[in-house]
Each structure stands twice: as C-alpha cells, then as structure tokens.
Amino acid sequence: MPELDSDFSDYIAESRTRIRQALREYYFREGESPFLGAYTLDQVARMRAPFEYAPASNCDESGEQPRQGILMLHGLTDSPYLLRPIASNLAFRFPCALIRSVLTPGHGTVPGDLLTTNLSQWRATVDYGVQSFAGQVDELTVLGYSNGAALALDYLNRNPSLSQINRLILISPGIQAASDSAWLAPWLKWIMPWINEFPDEDAVKYESFPTHAAGEFYRISSAVRNNTYSAPSIPARVLVSGMDTTVDARASIDYYCTWLDNGQSKLMLFNGEAVGPLPEACDTIELLSYQDPDERFRSFSHVALAMPASDSHYGLDGAYPACLTYFQNAELYQQCRADNEKTVYGESSLLDEQRMVDGKLLRRSTFNPLFDEVIEELACFISGDC
Prior knowledge:
The protein is an alpha/beta fold. The protein folds into 2 domains: 8-290 and 370-383, Alpha/Beta hydrolase fold, catalytic domain (Rossmann fold, 3-Layer(aba) Sandwich), CATH 3.40.50.1820; 307-368, no CATH class. It is built from 10 helices and 12 strands. It has helices at residues 8-26, 41-48, 84-93, 119-131, 147-158, 185-188, 211-227, 249-260, 330-338, 371-383, and strands spanning 51-53, 68-73, 98-102, 139-145, 167-171, 194-196, 209-210, 236-241, 266-270, 285-288, 343-346, 361-364. The chain has an 8-stranded mixed β-sheet, with helices on both faces. A two-stranded antiparallel sheet has the order 6-7. Strands 11-12 form a two-stranded parallel sheet. Strand 8, helix 8 (249-260) and strand 9 form a beta-alpha-beta unit. Helix 1 packs across helix 2 (41-48) and helix 5 (147-158) packs across helix 7 (211-227). The protein is globular, with a radius of gyration of 20 Å. The two termini are 37 Å apart. The relative contact order is 0.11.
C-alpha cells in the first residue's frame, strides 16, 4: 500500500518490483512462461503493474485549457491491463492529460494474496490515487471498472464535500453481485477458502477466486447501495451489459436511474433486450447492439466492454481465449482454446443444455466490437463537447 505522499513514479517502480518477485517465485521458477501467450517475466510484470501516461512535453502551460486528470480503478481479480486500451486511446485524444491507474492490494501477484487483503486497504489505495493528482490537474475524471466502479462510488459517499472528482465513468459497475448467494461469502470463507481454483494461465487476471475476496466485494457493493443518501451532482457515463453474469445489470440500471441520472449523465446499455422493460422515468439510457456478419460475436459479457477486438491478449482470436466453462472436460477445453472456427464469443448465459451455442463452443467475450464508439463517447464526455 502506498503512503499518501508517495511519488507516483516510485509507486509504479516498487509495485513492478514486487510483482516481478512474486511471479518469479511462483510462476517462472522453472524458467518457462506458464501463461498463454508465452510472455516473459518482464512482460507480465509490466502488464499487471500500475501505469501512468504523463502530459506531452509541448503542452500549453498558459492555463487557457483546464489540466485534465484521469484515474483508473480496475476490477476484482483483475489488473490495470484491462484498462490500458482505454487509457492509451484517451492519452492519444488528450495528450496534455495526466492518466494514472493504481493496483489495489492483493492483485497483480498470486491469487492467494487476496486471502488476506481487505476493503480498508482498497479504500486507502483509492484515496492515494485521488490524492496523487492534487495540484497537478484542474479537472479529475475517475474511471472504475466492476469492483473499481464500486470503489469510486464508495469514495464519493465517504467524501461528499471534499471530493476532487469532476466526472465519473463506470464500466460493468459492481453495484450488486449476480449470484443470489453472494451474501454468504463473508461467512463461507471459514469453511470454503476458494470459490474456484484453476491453473491461472491468464497473464493479466486471476482465474482462481478466493471466497474472502468475494466477501470483500459483497461489503463494498453493499456499502455503495446502503450508504448513498444524496445524488452526486457530477456527470457520469455508465456502461452496462444486459447479459452480465458477474454483476446484476438490473441493479446497475436502477442505481443509475436513482442516483446518477442528473441531466448530465448517460447509461450505455449493451444487449439491452436481456434486462426487460426499462424505467420510464429514466430516459437517458442508450441501447447498443452489434450484429456480427460472421456470427462469431454473439453478446457482450461483463469483461468485454473495455477491450478492443484488436487487443493481442483478449481480442478476437487473441492469446487468451476464455474457455473456463469447459475446464472439467479436457477435450472440450482444449478444443475451445485451439479451434477458432468452431467457437463463438458471448456471455455464458447463452449456453444451451449441451453447453453449446448453435452447435459451437463458447468463449466468453473478452472484447467489444463497438470499442471505437465507446472511446468517441468517453472523449466527448471528458472534453465537455457532448
């Protein structure tokens, strides 16, 4: 955990060193990469570490334009890599912006580190991230994905009058878990330490999931739902998949319509038909869908919205195909990972009784074919030109 007055470049360097040490001890002990994509130790450490895009050297210091800052908060079991494509695109659009991503404790190293980290540590890291922009920017946008979105809202609830945040971007927000049994996680951890255990072959995200981490997510999402007493006056952009099987899309929509729909905000709803009728009084919801001419992309999942199809790791036929739904069947698992012709991309709710989609295997969609439209909207939102 960084001290509040730590230099951000030192924080990045120390985080990368710690990640590299853990990876070397637990994953690269035999020398060869255990991750799909055959990444080197240094590559994985950079992919998982917090990052910064500093303003270009030729930026105007006259003060005529507000200095923009963007803080990015990743999700549970994730790493900052999942927000890098958005960050790099916004850095291109706003070369004078200061863009930073923090790494919440327990992440980036090994899944077992999530057995002991807690919400107070996550909150302290978010506080550090916000504080790191003090005196360096005039306007601050916080972008949170999944658990990071809950942490962003929690920060606003904890700092209603002291907030330095001017805009809010929430992607697949963790307002409420999709599972009806999520409330059991804080107690189940004593008898069932792991919700699932996998080989962890994804270079940028844990595949094994400790029950304790699920319990901490339940705490933060409950805090957001129960401790929001006044609507933030800042504008927001919220991206939700109607077919999300990780978080409850309906809860996200209801939260938006109750607390964030302030005349300056918008919710972009992908696969909107899956959630049924929308609240009539909430008319700032934009419905988006995508018809793939090749019929390989079928629906947007929880993890799809922030990643372009061109990404070498998570993109179309990228280094990491998400096939864990077939993990118990070695033959189907290997076929799903290796056969691009016989797989489609979508959320797991599409699976039929044979765990297929129209006779094909399902890779969980890890990219967004409408990514360019998302970047256009976010750039317009940040610049105030929408």
